[in-house]
């Protein structure tokens, strides 16, 4: 299965880009966030922010279809209570 870079929906602080990069490389997202802050300090903040938001606009957000998992919806049915839909 081929790896793809996505922005994370679950572990996002701003856009989910750092968490997505962390998932892609198998690293903690906090490490990626610290590296982004250090890069921003060395580039006078503005160029790093522009690069961050350009990449965030290009990288798609991860959705349920790309996650590989299926969603199951369970509904509780009370066996003691008669079904109201049959009375209508």
Short description:
With 88 residues, this protein is an all-alpha fold. The protein contains four helices and no strands.
Strand content: under 5%
Radius of gyration: 21 Å
Mind summarizing the main beta sheet?
none
Number of helices: 4
Question: How many domains, in number, for the residues?
Answer: 1
Outline, from the CA principal axes? Answer: elongated
Task: Give the helices and strands as they follow along the chain.
Answer: HHHH
Mean residue pLDDT: 84
User: Helical residue percent?
Assistant: 40-55%
Could you say which structural class the secondary elements and strand pairing correspond to?
mainly alpha
How many beta strands in the DSSP annotation? Answer: 0
Span between N and C termini? 50 Å
Uncertain ranges: none
How would you characterize the overall build of this protein?
By secondary structure, the protein is mainly alpha-helical. The chain has one domain (1-65). It has 4 helices and no strands. The chain has helices spanning 17-25, 29-42, 46-58, 64-67. The termini are far apart. The mean pLDDT is 84.
């Amino acid at each position: 299965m081929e790896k793809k870079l996505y922005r994370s929906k679950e572990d996002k602080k701003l856009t989910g880009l750092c968490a997505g990069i962390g998932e892609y490389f198998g690293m903690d997202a906090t490490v990626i966030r610290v590296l982004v802050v250090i890069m921003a300090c060395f580039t006078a903040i503005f160029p790093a922010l522009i690069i961050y938001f350009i990449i965030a606009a290009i990288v798609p957000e991860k959705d349920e279809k790309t996650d590989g998992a299926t969603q199951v919806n369970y509904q509780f049915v009370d066996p003691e209570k008669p079904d109201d839909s049959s009375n209508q």
